[in-house]
Amino acid sequence: MTSTAHRTADRPTQGAARSATKPAEPPAEKTSAETAPAQAADTVGQIERLARRIRLRAVRMIAPHGFGYLGQALSAAETIATLHTGFFRPGTDRFVCSPGHYIITAYAAAAEAGVLADTELARYGQDGSEIEAIGTERSPGTDLTCGSLAQGLSGGAGFALADRLRGAEGTRRTFVLVSDGEVEEGQTWEAALYAAHHRLGDLVVLLDANDSQVDGPVSSLTTVEPLAEKWRSFGWYAEDVDGHDPVQLLHALEKAVADPRPGVVIARTSTTHGLSCLPPEADGHFIKMPAGLAELALGELADDHA
Amino acid sequence: MREAPYPTVLKPYGRALVELARNRPDVVCLSGDLTRQCEVDLFQEAFPDRFIHAGMAEANMMSMAGALAREGLIPFVHTFGVFATRRPYDQVVNAIAYPNLPVRIIGFMPGLSTPGGPSHQAIEDVAIMRALPHMTVVDVADAVEIAQVVPAIVDHPGPVYLRLKRGEIPVVFEEEHRFSLTAAQHLVPGGDVVLVTSGMMLPATLRAANVLAAAGVAAGVVNVPVIKPLDRAGILRSVGSARAVVTVENHTVIGGLGSAVAEALAESGAGVPLRRVGIQDTFAEGSKSGPYLFEKYGLSTQHIVDTAWSLLGRPPAAPRAPENRAEQGEYAPV
């Protein structure tokens, strides 16, 4: 998180947040996936590995509790892994984790970048821990998060606006992770209108469309589709992709970043992806993980099984 | 202090903000589609590059203001009090108050100062903003205080909610008056009853004190522009050994100045009889004029006089407050 008046000096702050997202390698050339198959395959391999590690760390975090926000990490793993493989520039760009319960994904990514220790991650959601299950002002791994949903995009617009006011437009990007459930909140669209009207082109939304909210599938509760058409009609660059396919994510993010309009990549995902041991009836919003299942999950995601 | 009727001025807030911003490039101005109404057309004209039209989208405006503050800017956010507090309350909580960011939220048209009906009347804004940790709540009384409060809050370390009358602003204080962010001001001595007030109710309270004094009741007046954090010690000193205390606010009596003073008195063990003049747990209504509402909903000079009179146990037939005799361009309390 950025500096705030109540923040104390001894907690992991800006440095941790900014460096939490070190890329696994130097940014790939924009056309690498088309012109350099070997390099592209390498990038895809890195994304797949990082996504698996995010899932593994998320399982480790919730396992001691027997339940938790694992589905969010399972659905957003490739999206976050792609962001951290060549797009996000530590120390320059900002990362906003709009839905606070997705913070588990940011913690996992921060740990993979080596800025959050395993011992800290092990305190996830425990009494007295700053590694809280729903993101707060003291959460590492993000510049802004909020447990009250749909506020992150406005914050991201505020960051991009601050850059414009200071003449720094075009020098840094603000990436905002948003969930599909959040678009039910009107504030999402207030922010979308604002960002498009003012052409905040440094603003890029990663929309994790996992069709999951507390009471069931988003599609069964509120028709939010067609998402891409909605965002386009608001004046955004928008593209729908398979959110578990690194190649599609890479291409879409490249275009979203390059477009002069604010951009959104709608990643179609599943809250159980990448973990075949989960029962089919698993509640993606808040997955139950008794000890036996956790053992299976850890085995499935372990490095030597990759 | 001057005597009623008071001269009035236009846009003292708008001018004070422009003056401040001349030397403070970190000050940015947000408007929620009420630019002229909130006097910040002056800012827009003077500093167009630092003026942000947030449109009619208060939730987004508050969240953006929080992000701007995180980036080291000092956002002054402007709309009517109702749209600055009750509408985007969750955003004020999460984007501004909880992270303790230096956002200045300016809410115009307090209480029943507008005849625009319940949708436009901020009758509980002080209560809900006062309930937020980190939030400073200020309700200034006149143009002299307005000119001083703007530079006084710019470097305050946390968020501030400032409640401002719209339109013609009375000049109650002399130029020498000094606004304080920390001290309540004992303006009028008097030990029978102490009248504690803030904001738009100061003129009516001063007049009520005069009426009471003419009838042989020594009525003190304390001005409390900063409702949170409340200057408890100063108020207790001012109350001293008074036989009664009456609070006067252009706000519901639940949760505002009256409640804050009641808490201070009770927790100090003062045990002094207290009455709260204000809106009595009701929504008001639309009307042609604000003064009609002040009369109808118990915010007139006469209400203050009657309340103090009965609380002191005086015989019926309280003294009558004189008629309102403001000319065009002047301000006199109802």
Write a structural description.
The complex is a heterodimer of chains A (306) and B (334). Chain A is α/β, with parallel strands linked by helices. Chain A has a single domain (44-301), classed as Rossmann fold (3-Layer(aba) Sandwich), CATH 3.40.50. Chain A contains twelve helices and eight strands. In chain A, the strands form two sheets. Chain A has a six-stranded parallel beta sheet with strand order 3-2-4-5-7-6, sandwiched between helices. A two-stranded antiparallel sheet of chain A has the order 1-8. In chain A, α11 links the parallel β6 and β7 (263-268). In chain A, α4 packs across α11. The radius of gyration of chain A is 18 Å and the shape is globular. Chain B is of the alpha/beta class and 334 residues long. Chain B has two domains: 6-170, 3-Layer(aba) Sandwich (Rossmann fold), CATH 3.40.50.970; 185-317, 3-Layer(aba) Sandwich (Rossmann fold). Helices cover 34% and strands 22% of the residues of chain B. Chain B is built from twelve helices and 15 strands. In chain B, the strands form three sheets. In chain B, strands 3-2-4-5-7-6-12 form a seven-stranded mixed beta sheet, with helices on both faces. A five-stranded mixed beta sheet of chain B has the order 9-11-10-13-14, with helices on both faces. In chain B, α10 links the parallel β13 and β14. Chain B is globular and about 60 Å long. Chain B starts with 5 loop residues before the first strand and ends with a strand. The mean pLDDT of chain B is 97.
